[in-house]
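Team,

Forwarding the record for the chain on the shared tracking sheet. I've put the sequence and predicted structure together so nobody has to dig through attachments.
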Amino acid sequence: MSRAERVRLSGVVFVVLFTQLLVYPGVDRLVDALGGAPTIDAGTAFLAVQLGAFVLFSAVWGALSDRAGRRVPFVVAGAVGGTAAYLALAALVVTDLGDFRVALALRFLEGAFTIGAFSLSITMLMDLDGGHGRNMGAAGIAIGGGAALGAPVGGQLYALGPLAPILLAAALLSAVAVAVSTLPDRATGQRRDVTAALDGLRGRPELLVPFAFGFADRFAAGFFGLVGTFYFRDAFGLDPAAIGLLLACFFVPFALLQYLFGALSDRIGRVLPIAAGSVGFGAAILGVGLAPTVPAAAIAMVAVGVLGALVAPATMALVTDLVDADQRGAAMGGFNIFGSLGFLGGILVGGWLATRYGYLAAFAVAGGLEIAIAMVTLPALVRIVRD
């Protein structure tokens, strides 16, 4: 039973991430259609406002789910709300009734709903038996797969028009709502109020360790989503379709190896995959910025994907290791807050550095952050795993 549910829930996580990444390769074109300037600053604003909503609402969805002792209704509500927000964005262009500020407000609303579907579908995987590393490996392969295919498919869709990615996103999220409604609910909440659910996490400072790694990993993903897109365009003269394929060099191995590496962390422990993988991950990011040609950049992106796959499932599994079953929704919500802050930081800080100091400085900071967090948190990581 758990294996079949694991596959179906992985499909849900895949679709939600896939819809998010669809817009990235041609975000400048979408922003232009929505009434903004096709610049890196406007693109940053459009991507960042969604992530701001992720930060504000991730733990709230999780705590509500823990309190209710149910996940399915909240995942359905998040998917339906995301569908409506995407359709409203498309209507904004078709009817010409609003400007870019309205588009940003709708993007925020979409993020507030979509994070519920995303975070709680991962939490439903946490609720399954079969090994935390294995379950989080399934989540990781879905996350990586959605990101891997979302970028290149989105790049191809922009050839049909700037609204094509968001219309497909709306259709897929509506399908998620239908699919999740048929799944069993295995949550084990105690019907505490939301404040109590969130307060329970404050007594577990050890969660800051996997949260910190989640921040660094998502920083890199956000960095490549925005800065990588503009870097590959400016450095190599690539169009959105080619940029999507180059981003896939990272996301494909990142997706395909996560289940294997997650199961490996169940056998050998969390410390080595997280610590060693993070150091290599950071060095590979810098290697992308130093690559002189497209093939060299593609090889470096593959290395980033492989090493990222080593880190991600072990980090999420560590979150599951550290909390009780009735705190999983809030804990994964907290993890996604730090992850969303990282993704947002990758976009904002990466974009600011690239604009003012050049792409190489931006790559150095992104890679150096991953290495620094690994070195600083290693003693705490070893201690909490042993405890």
